[in-house]
Amino acid sequence: MEKGRGISSEDSGSKPQQGTGDHQFGGNSCPTGKIQVLGDIFQFTLDVSEFSPEDVIITSSNNLLEVHAEKLGEDGSVTNTFSHRCTLPSDVDPISVTMSMESSGLLTVRAHRVCFLFTTNTMEDVAPPGSVIVADWHRCRDSKDFFSKILHKKRRKTFGLLESPVMPPHVAVDTVHYKIFISGKSGVGKTALAARLAGLNVPSVHYETTGIETTVVYWPVKLRESGRVLFFRLQLWDCGENATRRFDHLLPSCKEQVDAVLFLFSFTDRTSFDDLSNQIAKWTGPPVGRVVKLVVGTKFDLFMHCDVAERDVRDFKETWRLPLLRVGGEVSDGLGDVAPFLNCLAEQLWHQDCVTAGSAGHHPQQETVALL
């Protein structure tokens, strides 16, 4: 256990919870903790304005953060106490945890999330994160000219089926095209995920997709081995669950020439998690061919309503050996909340193409020009 403002902890893999610990007060109102998942940042804020900075102690052990405050009177007696516990999610890098306290008394704890989770026995045809592309390239200075083509006034541009980013004539950038199908039960957030990745407004009210909706996402990446820049054109296919049941021709259309499937479940809906095996079974076999398969857990930020335990997620990964990503939290106008997701999707797609072409071998970072 460590104390103080320099926090570190060990990953216990326990389920994230909000307000799961003790709250003790000397007659004052209870400060409310707030947990947010902002892209690749896990943030925990707490109002401790009733205490001075020297009254607050932070401890951490096995991914459990505990905030304890104690105010003393002039006679040395305790006049007010408070304690709050928060368990870090298993996809948070414990080494990256930092803390700050504003003059207003707002305590903020931040940590970087490792959004791409693997088991120790990951399948050989899955590329480790960062092995093929530069994962944080969107933060680098040399990426500005490319990302500016998918942004307008710091917001994402909307591209139609026949539209694409326009680069200067002297800059040659190849575009690779992929078809992505989003699979999952009704209400897990398929339409919301497509909107989030494309920079569109996320629907505030759930509605059933009546047929097939397609969304185009452009995303520039830099290959790690050669430094070559590519535009990934991702066409996201979203088909309503009831529509696929009513119309037999929809699912075959979605499967035709598909490059990747995103299997969605909601952390707030246990039945959607239990249905994953059925979802994956529909996309297994020779008719489908080699496709990238990623599992996506949505509504990860709604910790108080979580219906899927962390141990169940670990068991699933050990059984299916598929990469699992988590999304949730507020949607920002920038790139930080979608970059980890789009980067790892692009990485797996490019790696799969290299494996299919027989050019990757044991070095998945090698690219092949023939694929273009």
From TrEMBL:
One of its GO terms (biological process) is cell projection organization. Residues 23-129 form the SHSP domain. It comes from the Eukaryota. It holds the Pfam family HSP20. Keywords: Cell projection, Cilium, Cilium biogenesis/degradation, Cytoplasm, Cytoskeleton, Exocytosis, GTP-binding, Nucleotide-binding, Protein transport, Transport. Residues 1-28 are annotated as: Disordered. InterPro entries: A-crystallin/Hsp20_dom (IPR002068), HSP20-like_chaperone (IPR008978), P-loop_NTPase (IPR027417), RSG1 (IPR039677), Small_GTPase (IPR001806). Residues 9-28 have a biased composition (Polar residues). It is found in: Cytoplasm, Cytoskeleton, Cilium basal body. Transmembrane segments: none annotated. Belongs to the small GTPase superfamily. Rab family. Belongs to the small heat shock protein (HSP20) family. This is Ciliogenesis and planar polarity effector 2. It comes from Scophthalmus maximus (Turbot). The lineage of its organism: Eukaryota, Metazoa, Chordata, Craniata, Vertebrata.
